[in-house]
Design a protein that fits this description.
By secondary structure, the chain is of the alpha/beta class. The chain folds into two domains: about 290 residues, Alpha-Beta Barrel (TIM Barrel); about 70 residues. It contains 16 helices and 14 strands. The strands form three sheets. It has a nine-stranded mixed β-sheet with strand order 7-6-5-4-3-2-1-8-9. A three-stranded antiparallel β-sheet has the order 11-12-13. The chain has a two-stranded antiparallel ribbon with strand order 10-14. Strand 2, helix 2 and strand 3 form a beta-alpha-beta unit. Helix 1 packs parallel to helix 2 and helix 6 packs parallel to helix 7. About 0% of the residues have low confidence.
Length: about 450
Amino acid sequence: MEKMYKTLSAPLVVQVEISAQCTSKCVHCYNHWRQDDDLKSHSVGLSEEGIDRIMDQLIRHKVLHTVFTGGEPFLNKRILFRALEKAQGFGISAGINSNLVPITIEDALRLKQAGVTSVLTSLMGPTSEIHDEISQCRGSFEKAIQGIRFLQEADVSVVVNMVISQKNKQYLKETATFVKSLGIRHFNSTRAGCPGNCADFSELSLSLKDFRDYLAELHAIGEQEQMSVGVLESYPLCAMKEVNRYKAFIGRRCSAAVTTLTIASDGNIRPCSHLDTSYGNIFKEELASIWNRMQEWRDGKLIPSKCSSCKILAWCGGGCRMEAKMRKGSLSATDPYVSFQDVDYAAFELTKIERRATTSSFPFMFRLNPQARWRIEEFGAVVFIGPRFKCYLNTTATKLLQGLNRDRAYQLSDFTSKQDDDVEGFLWQLYKRQILVPAP
């Protein structure tokens, strides 16, 4: 099979697990050690020396974005803020994943000062009874709501994710409307994935029908409640089926070892936060060496044989490898939600998206996104706006983009005399990825 992805010199995005400890013990938690009888080996979070060594490597390898997570990162807040300070000092953007149980108003204000613009948190239902039952932590719902209010007071944006399982699927809309009542307009919902140490996930996992019903309801919530809704995981497009309808949910192909990886609090590195296998330890060797060891995630070896020749693989990526491993026994097995009989339908739906994209209007005046950053690679460069918006460029395209003045507005006629006939298509691709934006 032809190599699926280019190999970058290092990841663009790194998740750092500040602490392995957590205030909750969520029934769906993907941390593979969460239900161990003995958590002693995981109970100590990162030290000052540890976080400094990690951040030094991220800076040296020109990582562009970090997500500080856990466990619960605020259980090791001294180290969290040390990491944020270092990231801010070297121009690495940062996000936080937290259940918000331990956060204080002082913490929220410090996040604002550290340049954190958004925090992702979880609500598993619209009431304390539902949420606390799933988190297995009494009082966690009320503390999460308090944490949200602290962040809002500090002018730090909050994004809520609801992990959907059999335990709470009937509360999706009620939870979304509750989130809206808090003044939050960004609501994500993600199917519960089988954790790395779970022998039987049948009581929590959604059926294919449940999965499609959940997507339909989430889409309807976005329209009816005028909320920005989305998902945080990669789903097989044949499972989604109605991809034209759910276009806001696609485009999240698995990025494990392609653009991202996770560093545990003990230094072990995994391609994906959900994965239970380490490829090396950052305290013992260079990040680049471990990154290069993950080639199987980029060369297509883990793509299921039935997916490798699929007409929509380039859009889809084959779904979740960890879900395949835990539910079917192998990283190269098919995602349990694939529906090969619906591939042709999904492919037809994709043509509608592509056709609409080619007829959409390109802005008359446009400019380089002020948030655009790039990193030079052997093939040219990668331009980065955020985890979802990035673009690989060859050397010619890199020179063109580097020549743009961030303070100037442009129009297509500025380029047509300098480039070949493909320039408009190239600029359109940059516009779709928000690297170019309409000029004010």
